[in-house]
Fold this sequence. Notes:
The structure holds two protein chains of two kinds. Chain A contains 19 helices and no strands. Chain A has helices spanning 3-16, 19-32, 36-39, 44-53, 55-74, 90-100, 105-133, 141-163, 168-182, 188-196, 203-235, 241-244, 259-284, 309-324, 341-357, 359-362, 374-394, 396-402, 407-441. In chain A, α7 runs antiparallel to α8 (141-163). Chain B folds into two domains: 2-41; 58-209, 3-layer Sandwich (Rieske Iron-sulfur Protein). Helix content of chain B is 15%, strand content 27%. Chain B contains two helices and eleven strands. In chain B, the strands form two sheets. A nine-stranded antiparallel beta sheet of chain B has the order 1-2-3-4-9-8-7-6-5, with no helix packed on it. The A-B interface holds A 85-86, 172, 175-176, 179-180, 193-194, 196-200, 202, 204, 294, 296-302, 316, 319, 331, 340-342, 397, 407 and B 45-48, 50, 65-67, 93, 95, 101, 130-134, 140, 149-153, 181, 183, 211-212.
Amino acid sequence: MTSRTKRLIAWLDERLLISPLVAKAQRSINFALPSTLARQNKSRVFWLTYPFYYAGAITALLAILQGITGLLLAFNYVPSAVGEPGTPTQAYLSVQNIMRTVPLGALVRGIHQWGANLLVAALAVHAFWAFFRSPYRLGRELTWVLGVILLGLALGYSFSGYLLPWDQLGYWAATISIQIMKAIPLLGESMVQLLLGGTSLTPDTLARFYFYHVSLLPGVALILVGAHLVLVILQGVSEPEEAWKSKAGKLEPPLFGPFFPQQITPVLTVSLVTLGVVLLLGAYAVQMPGEPANKFLTPRFIIPEWYFLWAYGLLKWVGWIYDLAHFVPPSSIFGVDLVSAKVVGILLAAGMFIILLLLPVIDRGKEARALQRPLKTAAGIWAIGFLVTLTLYALNEILSADLSIPIDRMNFILGSIVVLGPLVAAVPAYVVLRHRVSAKMH
Amino acid sequence: MSEKVAADSEKKGRRVTSRREFVRTMVSLGILGTLVSYLSLLTSLLPSPRSSQQESEVDNIFRYGPEKGAWYSDKSGTEVKAEDFDQNGKGAGVLWRRSIPAVLIRVDGSRLRGATAKNGLIAFAAACTHLCCIATWRLDRPTEDVLFCRCHDGVFDPYDVVKDVMPNGAEYLGARVVAGPPPRAAPMIPIEIKDGMVAGVPSNLEIYAYCE
């Protein structure tokens, strides 16, 4: 550093008084990641797990990218959906304008679109990796809870963003989701009214969703992401077991190394790859908005975005189970609809979210290593299987049409896969791990 | 002076509020009151009643719907004539009062149960009672005489009109649910023929508000 830079820093510090904080953060960062990560780069197996370790970093990077591209889009987007149903509204036209006439507009929107998809994917990987590695022990419970809330926020982001072009797909995906939300016992109707500014999708709704997307959620997310990261930096990354293993195979405390260059190198590598992938997808695979929204015409195959498919599938699947059991739910219990397929679907989804949120309280075991936790690991595998097969179930109509299998038979096939698939994956995993653990104990 | 008053009060066994306590209580109440009154601003988040525009212009004549690839697609938005429905089983997606999507069908009167057709025509609100997608007639299932909803395969039988109740308690007649997740029948819209045009009779509009 030149003496001039030093003087500038000293000048600033005299006024801001932050050098003790910076020093502390620096120390924390240097201790945050074990240098063994860098040392073990040489191990090929470790390279394979790289994307998992850095899914959090990728998420953060994509979030920044979403912020930048979103800002650029906001300069040209007009949040107005006033107009006759089926005719292009200002919102729709402005998105078309971005795609066609704004310089590099299509690229910016493409990056925003794919960035959102990849962000959710990275977040899912980050969350599942964290689930299996149990880093929420040892005083890191809040980091986990913040993370789960951020997962919810990310879904809120994409839900509100999907509607903004005011095209058929976004409109009807939102309509269905909102009608589902209305069925939430007791709270549904008022929640929807507050969320939409009305009882159904109207131009007023677009104003609100735009506000959520560009103002409310970014504000909340910024605070929560900040807290999440500060906690990670102050507490340090939860140790991977590999870092504790010396060459002799004994467990010993990991070596810590400086943030620069050991720790930053892999992060930068992964970041560059991510940026490249997003740029490529954004440039060559951007989706044009569909037909303008028409509230009097439902398009043939409406499906939500891929990361909501499991929830959509869950609702359909519960309905299928009811049909199979010839169970006709009573329309109300004590005046509240509690057992219809959609309500049960909602409650199941909410239950999954709450379990995730309370995981640090539920799982108080000391053992972090996934291979030493047969039940938890099997449960995680079951959950992944359940989400994947439900996603498949959500596509029942499309699959039935494409494969020309009658819908009833398709439902039966997919419904059985949802029941059996996760078990087929989880039960053997449990048996094998269980055997492995008990063999080690003897 | 005040000390004397305080001492006197104490002698009489009354509790004395010190100046500090008084100020603290008042400031706390003030802050609380301010916050509560500002909270009331949140009521601005509730839906605002839209000025009922074009109310006078709304008539009851059906207009052809926006469906593509149907026999009435090129008539979309024009008034529905009774003579267009020249054979049994012919039906169309229509719009009633500019806001209520419906399906109008020419039916075989002898098969119809629970209601009577007007000039062989019968109409049902097309918004599915499940999640409000718009059901269609013979677009997705061209060979079946059913109202079909694309979203979750809800199926209604227009030949079997039954009594049902809306969540708001309104009783109505509607097309029975044959299959799928819809919780209640698709409400029938009574119709009349005016100068050869088909119109709905707005006897009880509350029934059709279930998707709003």
